[in-house]
């Protein structure tokens, strides 16, 4: 592994022309410089210096290595100055549901980025349970997921409210006592749990849940009368579901911002505070 101190020793020997001058520049004894150079060479494919009668002469290999070391030390100096300054530099990894990533977060992320231009924001999509696990596994710093989240190591605050709206008028081979397909995303999506709860409130055996993890396919199925579904209102608008198959029945959803309670970091607090300052808690239904 490269050690900055060893590279500095090599750099000063070449630049200043002697071990003694390099030792003075690094405030150490010449024997330390000699030791660092030898250890540095032990990991390389060729010598950095030729040694004759106590003199060090940089090799052609060493000259090429020197050019690379100059760039590396300049970069190290820039990094040190950058992160010792009063300006904060951070990377925030945000995990979000599709509905949050597509409809709620864009304007807020733009506003946050303008307020904190030195922060790098990374956004990842995921299902509810995957997001929660990713938060605990330190794959995300903040998540925007279905709430409220109840976990001893997770804190959360209200994000926004939205609605799933019933779509579909089943006609294909539908009889009074036949089961109706209800299309839903899989078990990792909390919408599935909400739809299952709705089915339990209906006549027993009337509805049958079917996994379809594509709103485009769900749209095609319900348009052609093969079943029903509950779809986020904004998705209904974006995918232009026909008005005649959009029902009035709604399922309310709560989406929250969450973070690990043990992560007491300024950047996370700033993002949460920034989101909290926005009074718009209702995701507008554009249908």
Automatic annotation (TrEMBL):
<feature type="domain" description="HTH lysR-type">
    <location>
        <begin position="2"/>
        <end position="59"/>
    </location>
</feature>
<protein>
    <submittedName>
        <fullName>LysR family transcriptional regulator</fullName>
    </submittedName>
</protein>
<keyword id="KW-0238">DNA-binding</keyword>
<keyword id="KW-0805">Transcription regulation</keyword>
<dbReference type="InterPro" id="IPR036390">
    <property type="entry name" value="WH_DNA-bd_sf"/>
</dbReference>
<keyword id="KW-0804">Transcription</keyword>
<comment type="similarity">
    <text>Belongs to the LysR transcriptional regulatory family.</text>
</comment>
<dbReference type="InterPro" id="IPR005119">
    <property type="entry name" value="LysR_subst-bd"/>
</dbReference>
<dbReference type="GO" id="GO:0000976">
    <property type="term" value="F:transcription cis-regulatory region binding"/>
</dbReference>
<dbReference type="InterPro" id="IPR000847">
    <property type="entry name" value="LysR_HTH_N"/>
</dbReference>
<dbReference type="GO" id="GO:0003700">
    <property type="term" value="F:DNA-binding transcription factor activity"/>
</dbReference>
<dbReference type="InterPro" id="IPR036388">
    <property type="entry name" value="WH-like_DNA-bd_sf"/>
</dbReference>
<dbReference type="Pfam" id="PF03466">
    <property type="entry name" value="LysR_substrate"/>
</dbReference>
<dbReference type="Pfam" id="PF00126">
    <property type="entry name" value="HTH_1"/>
</dbReference>
């Amino acid at each position: 592994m490269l050690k900055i101190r060893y590279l500095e020793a090599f750099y000063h020997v070449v630049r200043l022309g002697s071990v003694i001058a390099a030792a003075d520049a690094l405030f150490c004894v010449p024997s330390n410089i000699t030791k660092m150079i030898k250890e540095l060479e032990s990991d390389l494919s060729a010598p950095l210096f030729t040694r004759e009668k106590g003199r060090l002469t940089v090799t052609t290999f060493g000259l090429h290595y020197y050019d690379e070391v100059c760039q590396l030390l300049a970069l190290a100096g820039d990094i040190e100055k950058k992160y010792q300054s009063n300006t904060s530099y951070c990377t925030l990894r945000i995990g979000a549901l599709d509905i949050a990533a597509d409809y709620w977060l864009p304007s807020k992320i733009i506003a946050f980025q303008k307020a904190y231009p030195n922060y790098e924001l990374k956004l990842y999509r995921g299902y509810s349970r995957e997001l929660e696990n990713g938060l605990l596994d330190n794959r995300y710093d903040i998540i925007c997921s279905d709430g409220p989240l109840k976990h001893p190591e997770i804190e959360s605050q209200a994000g926004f409210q939205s609605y799933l709206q019933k779509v579909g008028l089943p006609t294909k081979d539908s009889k009074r006592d036949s089961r109706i397909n209800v299309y839903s995303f899989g078990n990792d999506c909390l919408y599935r749990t909400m739809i299952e709860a709705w089915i339990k409130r209906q006549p027993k055996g009337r509805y049958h849940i079917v996994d379809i993890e594509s709103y485009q396919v769900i749209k095609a199925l319900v348009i052609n009368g093969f079943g029903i579904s509950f779809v986020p209102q904004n998705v209904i608008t974006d995918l232009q579901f026909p008005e005649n198959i959009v029902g009035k029945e709604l399922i309310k959803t709560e989406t929250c911002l969450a973070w690990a309670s043990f992560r007491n970091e300024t950047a996370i607090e700033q993002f949460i505070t920034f989101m909290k300052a926005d009074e718009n808690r209702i995701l507008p239904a554009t249908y």
